Amino acid sequence: MEDETCTTPAMKNTFLFLNSLILAVGICGGPLVMRLYFIRGGARIWFSSWLETGGWPIILLPLLISYMHRRRSTTEAKPFLMKPRLFMAAAVIGVLTGLDDYLYAYGVAKLPVSTSSLLTATQLAFTAVFAFLLVKQKFTAYSVNAVVVLTVAAVVLGLHTNGDRPAGETNKDYWLGFVMTLLGAALYGSILPLVELMYKKAKQEMTYTLVMEIQLVISIFATAFCTVGMLINNDFQAISREAQKYELGEAKYYLVVVWNAIIWQGFFLGVIGVIFYSSSLLSGIFIAVLLPITELLAVLFYHEKFQAEKGIALFLSLWGFIYYFIGEIEDKKKKKKNDNEKSNNPCNDQTAETHLAIDQIP
Predict the structure, then answer these.
(1) How many helices (H) and strands (E) does the chain have?
(2) Nearest to 211 by CA among 195, 234, 193
(3) Given pLDDT bands bounded at 50, 70 and 90, which one contains residue 54?
(4) Strands in the chain per DSSP E
(5) Are 83 and 204 in contact (CB under 8 A)?
């Protein structure tokens, strides 16, 4: 697994597709399972945020396989490739991720999935700004249009917010959940470019194995951050009592909890994989366009209200996603055309021959 940097464009696209698929399952399934926890009797927000990264032991299996693969090539293979500089950066991002986990879990606890999901899509605007500032992400007319349209799709929800307030939810709790979700979107919108910047400033060869190690460290520190919150809030003592009173039964309570952790870990692995094989902006756009799909699933499974504003938001999100990929296709065509022009330029051949002649001079 150490040859990722030497993959062909076809293999790179394959890996990008697989990571996008994992991301899609995570972003569509994660909010639904988390909401299921809350609507059936769960009430521990710190515990729910802990579950978002608490599935980090899953990453140890592919890392172990990678290490065994490296051991076949050389007996001097190290169990972990990460250097201290990269470890510290991942640890800081992990703490920020832990804070974001809490903000997001608070929003899911107070808002319908259909609302919190589309509000989360506003992170794309922050991702775009920070990607431009931190990693010098180049913008085209297509990508700018996609960012604007996808952001507007989420903002449209603000036109009709109180109409989907859950029964028994106070106006104060609803709006607090609204604000916390937006703050979480802003924070995560900055985390994605920070991960990409970390890759660029790593000062060591980046491979997918190293990317998984980074996600492991991020998840451990995020989980540690949420563990402190659980200890302060006495969540560990409350879990067994909560399980006994869960509407679906104690066994299904723990099933929901376990799948919550597994699905969210898949989401985070998909995110860092898409960033590694493409960019933080594409990762943000994937998240933004898949959130309306989550909204439709919430309407289907939880019978949440589907106002006209949500329909408009869904249409705009799909439009922005398609527009972005049209731009990507056009950009690749231009690059291919430029490469062909350079290869067919006789000056290039003459230059190469000149360099060859100089090299042959004794």
Answers:
(1) 14, 0
(2) 195
(3) very high
(4) none
(5) yes
Tokens of 318: 């799909």
**pLDDT at residue number 260:** 96
Question: Mean pLDDT throughout 78-106?
Answer: 94
Residue that has been written with the tokens 């590694």 in this structure:
276
Show the tokens assigned to 188.
């995560």
Residue found by looking up tokens 């999100």 in the block: 317
Say if CB 184 and CB 107 are below 8 A apart: yes
Neighbours of 311 (CB within 10 A): 14
Which of 129, 104, 85, 94 lies closest to 46, judged by CA? 104
Q: Among 123, 255, 138, which Cα is nearest to 190's?
A: 123
Q: What is the DSSP letter of 79?
A: S
Cα–Cα distance measured from residue 77 to residue 286, given in angstroms and rounded to the nearest whole number = 36
Whether 322 contacts 126, CB under 8 Å: no
pLDDT grade, residue 157 (50/70/90)?
Answer: low
Question: What is the residue type of 73?
Answer: S
User: CA–CA separation, 42 vs 28, rounded Å?
Assistant: 20
Q: Count Cβ neighbours within 10 Å for each residue of 326-343 and write b for 16 or more, e otherwise.
A: ebbeeeeeeeeeeeeeee
Does 29 have pLDDT greater than 50? Answer: yes
Which residues are CB-neighbours of 147 under 8 A, at least 6 positions away? 124, 125, 128, 285, 320
pLDDT at 295 (0 to 100): 76
CB atoms within 10 A of CB 248: 13
Band (pLDDT 50/70/90 cuts) for residue 215 is very high
HSE (side-chain half, CA atoms, 13 Å) at 122: 20
Residue range 105-130: mean pLDDT, rounded: 81
Q: Distance of alpha carbon 43 from its chain centroid, rounded?
A: 25
Q: How does pLDDT run across 95-115, given as a tens digit for each residue?
A: 999 999 999 999 999 888 877
**Number of Cβ atoms within 10 Å of the Cβ of 213:** 21
Residue 166 DSSP code = P
Q: In the prediction, which pLDDT does 163 show? A: 58
